[in-house]
Amino acid sequence: MCNSYNSTVNYSNDRGFEIMGSGRSKKGSAFERVVCKQLSRWWTYGEREDVFWRSSASGARAKIRSKTGKKTFGQYGDVQATDPIGQPLIDWVTIEIKKGYSKNSFQDLVDAMPTQKPVFGQFIDQARTDHENAESEWWLLISKRDQREALVTMPLGLWKDLKEYQSINIKPRALITTYDLKIAIITFKDFLFYIEPEFFQHDR
What SS3 state is found at 121? Predict the structure, then answer.
């Protein structure tokens, strides 16, 4: 089974790829690199770790060009496909990655004061904006607080589509519905272990 990100031990699951610990990663860029390698192993069933990598300046170039109405292929969000075999995933989902922010969590979406914009909500807004600019089908937010498990936040519609496509024997850690948001949250290790890459390889 998959292990927690806080572990420094590498475990292998039945797909043959290792889920590596990242407890020593202190910067968001280091976490982005770990996530990209793990997504690559997941996508190729353990054969490769170089299919995905950090987008140019973590998507900053695409953001700047979007303000002037210009498109930037494959550079939205924090993850790009460095090999064409990974492009179907990027076409389906725009991925935002956040590390740290230990005082902020998805609970802030529920109990923040009406005049406040929770930091976690800002992360989702950024993922939504990049997804809209990329014209992808959905968005994903992969986040990890210090000394906590990494989480995958996704639109509730994507979670329902995944469950319709395959039998998923897990329940989300949280389902949150607010006046303008419906999301499902699972751990990143559960995403890698239970979600089949084939879902993102069929036609949109």
Answer: helix
| Alpha carbon distance 155, 158 (integer Å) | 5
What is the Cα 193 distance to its own chain's centre?
Answer: 14
pTM of the model: 0.79
> Tokens 């609970």 sit at which residue?
107
Residue 135 CA, chain-centre distance (Å), reads 17
**Residues sharing a CB contact under 8 Å with residue 171, sequence separation 6 or more, in sequence order:** none
Each residue's pLDDT tens digit, 99-146? 988 888 888 888 887 788 889 999 999 999 999 999 999 999 999 999
Distance of CA 195 to the CA centre of its chain: 13
Return phi, psi of residue 188, to 5°: -65, -35
Boundaries of every domain in the chain = 11-149
- The DSSP letter of residue 9 is S
